[in-house]
Amino acid sequence: MEQSATDLRQVLFQDIQSGLYFDGAKVVKSSTQSYDTDLAAELWEMSESLIVQSKSYNNS
What does the pLDDT average to over 19-44? Predict the structure, then answer.
């Protein structure tokens, strides 16, 4: 818990660029899956489908 608080404090108060990923206080690359455009499109389609289903359910 103490290490988590220290890491969070370092990340919050550093002058860093937005959109970075961290492992503790260290900047790391995001996963290989995050660069997969086919997977991103599939996730987008599934998300849209769930939203449509949710709206249908709430309107009935």
Answer: 90
The two structure tokens encoding residue 57:
């359910």
Positive or negative CA dihedral for 34, 35, 36, 41? positive
pTM exceeds 0.70 for this model: no
Instruction: Specify the DSSP element, H or E, that contains 23.
Output: strand 21-23
CB 27 within 8 A of CB 15: no
Helix H or strand E segment including 25: none
Answer for the pair 44, 38: CB distance below 8 angstroms, yes or no.
no
Which helix H or strand E contains 29, and what residues bound it?
none
